[in-house]
Design brief:
Order of helices and strands: EEEEHEHEHEHEEHEHEHH
Strand content: 15-25%
Shape: globular
Oligomer: single chain
Length: 289
Protein backbone atom coordinates (compact mmCIF):
# COMPACT_ATOMS: atom_id res chain seq x y z
CA UNK A 1 0.00 0.00 0.00
CA UNK A 2 2.33 2.74 -1.18
CA UNK A 3 1.00 6.25 -0.76
CA UNK A 4 1.87 7.80 -4.12
CA UNK A 5 0.95 11.30 -2.96
CA UNK A 6 3.90 11.49 -0.58
CA UNK A 7 7.33 12.57 -1.77
CA UNK A 8 10.25 10.43 -0.64
CA UNK A 9 13.22 12.37 0.69
CA UNK A 10 16.72 11.91 -0.70
CA UNK A 11 19.58 11.59 1.78
CA UNK A 12 23.01 12.50 0.37
CA UNK A 13 25.06 11.03 3.21
CA UNK A 14 25.94 7.38 3.62
CA UNK A 15 24.56 6.15 6.95
CA UNK A 16 26.16 3.00 8.41
CA UNK A 17 23.29 2.54 10.85
CA UNK A 18 20.18 0.77 9.59
CA UNK A 19 17.24 2.54 11.18
CA UNK A 20 13.91 0.81 11.72
CA UNK A 21 11.49 1.41 8.86
CA UNK A 22 8.08 2.88 9.60
CA UNK A 23 5.75 0.17 8.37
CA UNK A 24 2.76 -1.90 9.40
CA UNK A 25 1.43 -5.24 8.17
CA UNK A 26 -2.25 -4.71 7.38
CA UNK A 27 -5.08 -6.67 5.78
CA UNK A 28 -5.77 -5.27 2.31
CA UNK A 29 -9.52 -5.87 2.82
CA UNK A 30 -10.48 -4.98 6.39
CA UNK A 31 -7.37 -3.19 7.65
CA UNK A 32 -6.57 -5.64 10.48
CA UNK A 33 -3.08 -5.03 11.88
CA UNK A 34 -1.01 -8.23 12.28
CA UNK A 35 1.45 -6.56 14.62
CA UNK A 36 4.73 -8.48 14.71
CA UNK A 37 3.31 -11.77 13.39
CA UNK A 38 4.29 -13.28 10.03
CA UNK A 39 0.93 -13.38 8.27
CA UNK A 40 0.06 -13.84 4.61
CA UNK A 41 -3.72 -13.74 5.11
CA UNK A 42 -6.01 -12.00 7.58
CA UNK A 43 -7.16 -13.99 10.62
CA UNK A 44 -10.59 -12.34 10.43
CA UNK A 45 -11.70 -11.89 6.81
CA UNK A 46 -9.12 -13.96 4.91
CA UNK A 47 -7.89 -10.98 2.90
CA UNK A 48 -4.31 -10.79 1.68
CA UNK A 49 -1.88 -9.02 3.98
CA UNK A 50 0.17 -6.14 2.64
CA UNK A 51 2.73 -3.70 3.96
CA UNK A 52 1.86 -0.07 4.59
CA UNK A 53 4.59 2.56 4.94
CA UNK A 54 4.60 6.09 6.31
CA UNK A 55 6.20 7.61 3.22
CA UNK A 56 6.24 11.07 4.75
CA UNK A 57 9.09 9.86 6.98
CA UNK A 58 10.96 7.71 4.46
CA UNK A 59 14.52 8.54 3.42
CA UNK A 60 16.32 6.94 0.48
CA UNK A 61 19.93 6.50 1.53
CA UNK A 62 22.91 7.11 -0.71
CA UNK A 63 24.37 3.62 -0.95
CA UNK A 64 25.73 1.26 -3.59
CA UNK A 65 23.86 -1.53 -1.78
CA UNK A 66 20.17 -1.49 -2.83
CA UNK A 67 19.06 -3.06 0.47
CA UNK A 68 20.58 -0.10 2.32
CA UNK A 69 19.28 2.48 -0.11
CA UNK A 70 15.68 1.23 0.01
CA UNK A 71 15.70 -0.20 3.53
CA UNK A 72 12.94 2.12 4.76
CA UNK A 73 10.48 0.84 2.14
CA UNK A 74 11.26 -2.83 2.71
CA UNK A 75 9.23 -4.94 5.21
CA UNK A 76 12.06 -5.45 7.72
CA UNK A 77 12.51 -3.25 10.77
CA UNK A 78 16.23 -3.89 11.26
CA UNK A 79 18.74 -4.37 8.47
CA UNK A 80 21.45 -6.38 10.22
CA UNK A 81 20.82 -9.50 8.13
CA UNK A 82 20.55 -7.98 4.67
CA UNK A 83 23.29 -9.11 2.25
CA UNK A 84 26.26 -6.83 2.80
CA UNK A 85 27.73 -7.45 -0.65
CA UNK A 86 24.61 -6.75 -2.74
CA UNK A 87 24.92 -4.51 -5.78
CA UNK A 88 22.77 -3.08 -8.53
CA UNK A 89 22.40 -5.09 -11.71
CA UNK A 90 22.98 -3.49 -15.13
CA UNK A 91 20.33 -2.09 -17.42
CA UNK A 92 20.96 -2.58 -21.15
CA UNK A 93 19.50 -0.19 -23.71
CA UNK A 94 17.98 -2.58 -26.26
CA UNK A 95 18.08 -0.23 -29.22
CA UNK A 96 17.61 -2.81 -31.99
CA UNK A 97 14.68 -4.49 -30.28
CA UNK A 98 13.18 -1.14 -29.34
CA UNK A 99 13.35 0.09 -32.91
CA UNK A 100 11.61 -3.06 -34.11
CA UNK A 101 8.61 -2.60 -31.82
CA UNK A 102 8.53 1.20 -31.73
CA UNK A 103 10.05 1.88 -28.29
CA UNK A 104 12.95 4.32 -28.19
CA UNK A 105 13.61 3.75 -24.50
CA UNK A 106 13.46 -0.03 -24.04
CA UNK A 107 15.80 -1.30 -21.34
CA UNK A 108 16.47 -4.88 -20.29
CA UNK A 109 17.45 -5.54 -16.68
CA UNK A 110 20.17 -8.20 -16.52
CA UNK A 111 19.36 -10.06 -13.31
CA UNK A 112 21.77 -12.87 -14.18
CA UNK A 113 24.40 -10.76 -12.42
CA UNK A 114 22.81 -11.67 -9.08
CA UNK A 115 24.56 -14.43 -7.07
CA UNK A 116 22.33 -17.31 -8.22
CA UNK A 117 21.58 -15.82 -11.62
CA UNK A 118 17.99 -14.64 -11.17
CA UNK A 119 15.89 -11.85 -9.69
CA UNK A 120 14.88 -14.19 -6.85
CA UNK A 121 18.06 -13.29 -4.95
CA UNK A 122 16.39 -9.95 -4.25
CA UNK A 123 13.38 -11.74 -2.79
CA UNK A 124 15.44 -14.08 -0.60
CA UNK A 125 17.56 -11.21 0.71
CA UNK A 126 14.45 -9.61 2.22
CA UNK A 127 12.09 -12.51 2.86
CA UNK A 128 14.42 -14.41 5.19
CA UNK A 129 15.14 -11.38 7.43
CA UNK A 130 11.40 -10.65 7.37
CA UNK A 131 10.53 -14.17 8.57
CA UNK A 132 13.39 -14.26 11.07
CA UNK A 133 12.41 -10.92 12.57
CA UNK A 134 8.84 -12.16 13.08
CA UNK A 135 9.93 -15.26 14.98
CA UNK A 136 9.86 -17.86 12.19
CA UNK A 137 12.65 -20.42 12.59
CA UNK A 138 11.27 -23.17 10.32
CA UNK A 139 9.11 -22.78 7.24
CA UNK A 140 7.75 -24.75 4.29
CA UNK A 141 7.90 -23.56 0.70
CA UNK A 142 7.69 -24.86 -2.86
CA UNK A 143 9.52 -23.81 -6.00
CA UNK A 144 10.33 -24.68 -9.59
CA UNK A 145 13.96 -23.69 -9.13
CA UNK A 146 14.91 -20.02 -8.91
CA UNK A 147 13.25 -19.15 -5.60
CA UNK A 148 14.46 -22.25 -3.79
CA UNK A 149 17.99 -21.85 -5.15
CA UNK A 150 18.07 -18.24 -3.92
CA UNK A 151 16.63 -19.24 -0.54
CA UNK A 152 19.18 -22.05 -0.20
CA UNK A 153 22.04 -19.63 -0.68
CA UNK A 154 20.63 -16.92 1.58
CA UNK A 155 19.64 -19.20 4.46
CA UNK A 156 23.32 -19.88 5.18
CA UNK A 157 23.31 -16.50 6.94
CA UNK A 158 20.64 -17.84 9.33
CA UNK A 159 22.04 -21.06 10.84
CA UNK A 160 19.13 -21.29 13.30
CA UNK A 161 16.53 -21.35 10.50
CA UNK A 162 15.33 -24.42 8.60
CA UNK A 163 13.62 -24.65 5.21
CA UNK A 164 11.38 -27.57 4.22
CA UNK A 165 11.34 -27.43 0.42
CA UNK A 166 8.80 -29.23 -1.79
CA UNK A 167 9.52 -29.65 -5.50
CA UNK A 168 7.58 -31.43 -8.22
CA UNK A 169 9.81 -34.12 -9.74
CA UNK A 170 9.92 -32.50 -13.19
CA UNK A 171 11.59 -29.41 -11.69
CA UNK A 172 14.11 -31.22 -9.49
CA UNK A 173 17.01 -30.53 -11.85
CA UNK A 174 16.41 -26.79 -11.57
CA UNK A 175 16.86 -26.66 -7.79
CA UNK A 176 20.53 -26.01 -7.02
CA UNK A 177 21.85 -26.29 -3.48
CA UNK A 178 24.51 -28.11 -1.52
CA UNK A 179 23.68 -30.45 1.35
CA UNK A 180 22.93 -28.37 4.41
CA UNK A 181 21.34 -28.94 7.82
CA UNK A 182 19.24 -25.85 7.08
CA UNK A 183 17.45 -27.54 4.16
CA UNK A 184 15.12 -30.54 3.99
CA UNK A 185 14.18 -31.21 0.37
CA UNK A 186 11.17 -33.31 -0.66
CA UNK A 187 10.81 -34.27 -4.33
CA UNK A 188 7.21 -35.23 -5.16
CA UNK A 189 6.94 -37.91 -7.84
CA UNK A 190 4.23 -37.22 -10.42
CA UNK A 191 3.14 -33.96 -8.74
CA UNK A 192 2.46 -30.65 -10.46
CA UNK A 193 3.82 -27.32 -9.24
CA UNK A 194 0.38 -26.49 -7.80
CA UNK A 195 0.23 -29.81 -5.94
CA UNK A 196 3.70 -29.22 -4.49
CA UNK A 197 2.57 -25.79 -3.30
CA UNK A 198 -0.54 -27.27 -1.67
CA UNK A 199 1.38 -30.11 -0.03
CA UNK A 200 3.89 -27.67 1.44
CA UNK A 201 0.98 -25.88 3.12
CA UNK A 202 -0.51 -29.15 4.39
CA UNK A 203 2.85 -30.31 5.76
CA UNK A 204 3.29 -26.99 7.56
CA UNK A 205 -0.17 -27.24 9.11
CA UNK A 206 0.32 -30.84 10.26
CA UNK A 207 3.73 -30.15 11.80
CA UNK A 208 3.21 -26.73 13.35
CA UNK A 209 5.51 -24.98 10.84
CA UNK A 210 5.15 -21.68 9.05
CA UNK A 211 3.86 -21.86 5.46
CA UNK A 212 5.86 -19.39 3.38
CA UNK A 213 3.09 -19.14 0.72
CA UNK A 214 5.16 -17.82 -2.18
CA UNK A 215 3.75 -14.64 -3.73
CA UNK A 216 1.34 -14.21 -0.81
CA UNK A 217 4.27 -13.74 1.59
CA UNK A 218 4.67 -9.93 2.01
CA UNK A 219 8.38 -10.40 2.66
CA UNK A 220 8.74 -11.94 -0.79
CA UNK A 221 6.31 -9.80 -2.76
CA UNK A 222 7.67 -6.35 -1.97
CA UNK A 223 11.32 -6.80 -3.06
CA UNK A 224 10.28 -8.62 -6.24
CA UNK A 225 8.07 -5.72 -7.27
CA UNK A 226 10.26 -2.81 -6.30
CA UNK A 227 13.86 -3.40 -5.19
CA UNK A 228 16.68 -2.24 -7.45
CA UNK A 229 14.54 -0.13 -9.73
CA UNK A 230 16.13 2.01 -12.39
CA UNK A 231 16.57 5.70 -11.64
CA UNK A 232 15.03 6.57 -15.03
CA UNK A 233 11.68 8.36 -14.87
CA UNK A 234 10.97 8.57 -18.62
CA UNK A 235 7.36 7.33 -19.00
CA UNK A 236 8.20 5.72 -22.36
CA UNK A 237 10.80 3.45 -20.75
CA UNK A 238 9.57 -0.14 -20.52
CA UNK A 239 11.53 -2.35 -18.15
CA UNK A 240 10.91 -6.07 -18.04
CA UNK A 241 12.19 -7.45 -14.76
CA UNK A 242 9.89 -10.22 -13.58
CA UNK A 243 10.49 -13.93 -14.02
CA UNK A 244 8.01 -14.34 -16.86
CA UNK A 245 9.40 -11.43 -18.85
CA UNK A 246 12.75 -10.60 -20.41
CA UNK A 247 15.35 -10.42 -17.66
CA UNK A 248 18.49 -10.84 -19.72
CA UNK A 249 19.88 -11.62 -23.13
CA UNK A 250 20.21 -15.34 -22.57
CA UNK A 251 17.23 -16.50 -20.52
CA UNK A 252 14.66 -15.73 -23.21
CA UNK A 253 16.26 -18.44 -25.33
CA UNK A 254 14.78 -20.94 -22.87
CA UNK A 255 11.26 -19.53 -23.09
CA UNK A 256 8.45 -20.33 -25.46
CA UNK A 257 8.04 -16.79 -26.73
CA UNK A 258 4.42 -17.17 -27.78
CA UNK A 259 3.26 -18.87 -24.59
CA UNK A 260 5.14 -16.53 -22.26
CA UNK A 261 3.91 -13.49 -24.15
CA UNK A 262 0.35 -14.78 -24.01
CA UNK A 263 0.57 -15.18 -20.24
CA UNK A 264 1.45 -11.53 -19.68
CA UNK A 265 -0.31 -9.85 -22.63
CA UNK A 266 -3.41 -8.86 -20.67
CA UNK A 267 -1.42 -7.07 -17.97
CA UNK A 268 1.56 -5.65 -19.87
CA UNK A 269 1.04 -5.40 -23.64
CA UNK A 270 4.46 -3.75 -24.26
CA UNK A 271 6.15 -6.59 -22.40
CA UNK A 272 4.25 -9.21 -24.36
CA UNK A 273 5.09 -7.53 -27.64
CA UNK A 274 8.75 -7.24 -26.67
CA UNK A 275 8.91 -10.87 -25.60
CA UNK A 276 7.48 -12.10 -28.92
CA UNK A 277 9.84 -9.88 -30.87
CA UNK A 278 12.83 -10.92 -28.78
CA UNK A 279 12.12 -14.60 -29.25
CA UNK A 280 11.95 -14.06 -33.01
CA UNK A 281 15.13 -11.98 -33.09
CA UNK A 282 17.07 -14.57 -31.13
CA UNK A 283 15.73 -17.36 -33.30
CA UNK A 284 17.08 -15.45 -36.29
CA UNK A 285 20.46 -14.97 -34.61
CA UNK A 286 20.07 -11.22 -34.05
CA UNK A 287 21.53 -9.13 -31.23
CA UNK A 288 19.35 -7.13 -28.84
CA UNK A 289 21.66 -4.16 -28.37
Amino acid sequence: MFNASCEVQQCVLESPELSACLMRLLCSQCGWDAGEAAKSFCDYCGGMMDVSYDLSSVVLHNSSNPYKRFREILPVRHGDHYPSDAAYTPVVHAQSLGALIGLDHLYLKDETKNPTGSTKDRMAGVSLPYLNERGVTAFCTSSTGNSSTAYARAIARFPHMRMFLFTAERFQHRVQHTDSPNIVHFVLRGATFTEAFEYAGQFASLNGLHSERGFFNPGRRRPENGLDRSQRTDPSTHRLVRSGCIQCHGCVRHLDGGQAAGNIAARTPPAASALRATAKLLADGARLE
